[in-house]
Amino acid sequence: MQKELWYRIALTKIPEIGPVSGRKLIQYFETASAVFAARKKELRSVSGISERAAEQIKSCTVAAAVDAEMNYLKKEHISPLFITDKEYPHRLLHCYDAPILLYWRGTADLNAHKILSIVGTRMNTPYGKNTTENIIQSLPNDLVIVSGLALGIDSIAHKAALKNGTQTIGVLAHGLDDMYPSQNKSLANAMLQQGGLLSEFAHQTKADKYNFPKRNRIVAGIADAILVIETAIKGGSMITADLAFNYNREVFALPGKITDLHSSGCLHLIEQNKASVFTSTEKLLETMGWETKRQKQTDPQLKIFLQLSDDEQLIIKILEEHGSISHDELFSNALLNSSRMAAALLNLELQNIITILPGRKIVLNYTANRVK
Length: 372
Fold this sequence. Notes:
Layout: H1 2-12, H2 19-29, H3 32-37, H4 40-44, H5 51-59, H6 63-76, E1 79-82, E2 101-106, E3 115-119, H7 126-137, E4 144-147, H8 153-163, E5 168-171, H9 185-193, E6 195-199, H10 211-221, E7 225-228, H11 236-246, E8 250-253, H12 261-271, E9 276-277, H13 281-288, H14 310-322, E10 324-326, H15 327-334, H16 338-350, E11 354-357, E12 361-364
Parallel strand pairs: 3-4, 3-7, 4-5, 5-6, 7-8, 8-9
Antiparallel strand pairs: 1-2, 2-6, 10-12, 11-12
């Protein structure tokens, strides 16, 4: 199996072979090793395989890169998912340009019965944040939330899912050895325990601007439906929505004021009949044929938080003294390194103990019961 995996990775590293042509080769030869064992004439007989592509397959100059990837996968316990594997996200199989190989780390079921992608602007409004959180809180527990781990709506959706005990998957535009944006490292680590991270990019692949549309097609194709919260007419969320529409996925868009730039994209999708108007969670669930009731969750204000770390208790103490504080002021007062403070803030935010407002201002929601 390791030998076959070697050839699977090698196929993705051939410059002239993309997802569409790679899939055609696998459909014709059945295995990646058989592709590399084929004669050039046989390769050329496959539709879309050029002379140059056939030459690159036969010369196979990517051995060093494949060996490096194999070593990384073993060291970091990454699961490679090939397009013929039963664990491969089966919804993507209906997308003509699905990746032939994905890299996965996590606990969620990529073939769960209900998967919803939520996307939106990086520059969200309080309306977008509150709506996203309320929607996720009212969704069934067995539904998986997918997004792109970007700042703004993506991050809000992932955090809200974690807070509500919902599995959430982040699709990356780079390798699993990196995190962009860096502010989401703590969030990504938390998601590994309640969801996971997925990418079609090998390790040491940076977040190049050309990778984001590729990432977006996975976000669009891996789900049953996509919900667009806030977006301008141009942007990654609109690309994802268009892709989902072309993949025959259900698309929902949150309406807003006609004068609001952050709602212009959603209104455009609705106007073009590419998206249904999102009016309530119940209506979305009804449209999708999913269950419409969810057990009421305890009001976060009534939770008793007994297990807080020393760092988290220190932050709460500072906030109790100041009422509200900027991120930089908190950093100066707490004297914690950036990674420790980021982890503590994320956990406090997930538990609804603090709120991080626009401009990175931090406020304490209420006093928690703290035990050292």
